[in-house]
Design goal:
alpha/beta; 9-stranded mixed β-sheet; 5-stranded mixed β-sheet; 10 helices; 24% helix; globular
Length: 419
């Protein structure tokens, strides 16, 4: 045994921090009624035990608009904070502890009558006409698809391809990874739409192996199988802050091509895969949550969708002093242009959500500081079609394993696939 241990590699791993700041509400579900006091317990621990005489800064109030900021010392490493709201929304306490020259943060966000939240965005009267025309004009260009097998990613049960097809005009292409079951037959389909950023994609052979055609797309019109260094250069250069491009003109917005590209991706699934013609889902998180709402709102071929901490929702909320969705176009912006405000309404997830008719699964975290739960909940509230809400309160702009498992299981059930 000793000889065996001598040849086994021993690898140390970094995992978490020894200093931990916890902020815990006194309601297990983190939910309160307007006017009710929320008491939050703050604890700063080192090696699992309370740390004495620790300096902290904290801010508290409606998310993105704190009304209280203080610096104090905690003699026994603990503090109770009490707050409340007089209107529906989310109350956030953020604590930063300063220990040995380093900062450690903890946060808790309490919901106040979130089911009463309503978005601020106004829907343009020609919203439906605008998008119907954009899709019609894109379809004047044939898809002209390409398909390249990726044998190194394929398995005995799943063939994996890089595919591309034309989008809004000749030469403007959408690229993605298509995973198809090897066994001949007709299958349900799932469109995976991406969060913000510039990156390669791997596809989803796991879901495909269960009997689903899965198309995962990029949005930037470039191959999705190149070295990471290429995407890093684009993210720092030509595609830096692409979400701001063209936002003074609804026809020049970067997202016009992106949204239409999602519809064209479904065109590709319908015309060039063994889709069963009955079951089709779309799903994504953050920017991908917005694109899921947009796709489900525009295309009746979609039969289910999963939208997780959806970005690009209720852009104009910050003009009224309320938390707004990423990318926070008008947050702390003085005198934004009327053209930019008007353009944002055509690219607001809320206005797409209002049009959805198929079942949806929503999830987000109360502690998310990228996609505020105020906007996520308000967006959920406007959906009139069947819907399921599964908040994971402690999460920020990420998800837990249990959350992911529940999300995927719901999609498979809606797609009529045995999990």
């Amino acid at each position: 045994m000793s000889a065996l241990l001598a040849v086994l590699p021993l690898t140390a791993q970094i995992r978490g921090n020894n200093i931990v700041v916890t902020v815990e509400p006194d309601h297990q579900d983190w939910n309160y009624r307007v006017g009710e006091t929320c008491t939050m317990q703050v604890e700063v621990r080192r090696s699992g035990t309370l740390l004495s005489d620790v300096a902290i800064d904290y801010e508290a109030g409606p998310e993105m608009y704190p009304t209280e900021k203080k610096s104090v010392r905690l003699k026994d490493g603990t503090m109770k904070h009490r707050g409340k709201m007089t209107s529906p929304g989310f109350y956030r306490l953020k604590v930063t502890a300063h220990v040995d020259g380093r900062d450690y943060a903890g946060v808790c966000t309490a919901a106040y009558d979130p089911e009463r939240l309503q978005p601020t965005t106004v829907c343009p009267p020609d919203f439906d006409t605008f998008w119907a025309k954009a899709i019609e004009q894109a379809r004047w260009t044939s898809l002209e698809p390409t398909k390249r097998l990726l044998p190194e990613r394929s398995t005995k049960d799943v063939n994996v391809y890089e595919v591309s097809f034309q989008n809004v005009r000749w030469g403007s292409r959408t690229y993605g990874i298509l995973c198809e079951p090897v066994k001949p037959g007709r299958y349900p389909a799932l469109l995976r739409v991406p969060g913000a950023g510039v990156r390669p994609y791997q596809g989803d052979p796991w879901t495909a192996a269960k009997g689903v055609i899965v198309l995962e797309i990029g949005i930037h019109g470039i191959s999705v199988t190149q070295p990471q260094s290429l995407y890093d250069r684009l993210a720092d250069g030509a595609l830096n802050c692409y979400w701001n491009y063209g936002m003074d003109d609804r026809d020049q917005s970067y997202y016009k091509r992106v949204v239409v590209g999602c519809i064209r991706a479904i065109d590709y699934i319908e015309q060039f895969t063994q889709w069963d013609g009955r079951n089709l889902g779309v799903t994504g998180s953050s920017q991908g949550g917005f694109l899921s709402l947009a796709t489900a709102g525009l295309d009746r071929r979609v039969t289910c969708y999963g939208a997780v901490h959806s970005a690009l929702c209720d852009h104009t909320a910050s003009l009224k002093g309320v938390a707004c969705g990423w990318p926070h176009y008008f947050y702390n912006v003085k005198d934004p242009s009327k053209a930019r405000i008007e353009t944002s309404r055509y690219y607001d997830g809320v206005n797409f959500a209002r049009r959805i008719t198929c079942p949806g699964w929503f999830s987000f975290g109360y502690n998310d500081d990228v996609v505020p739960p105020t906007t996520a909940y308000a967006t959920y509230n406007v959906v009139t079609a069947p819907k399921t809400l599964r908040p994971y309160q402690q999460t920020a702009h990420y998800w837990y394993q249990e959350q992911w498992d529940e999300w995927q299981a719901w999609l498979l059930k809606e797609l009529r696939v045995e999990n």
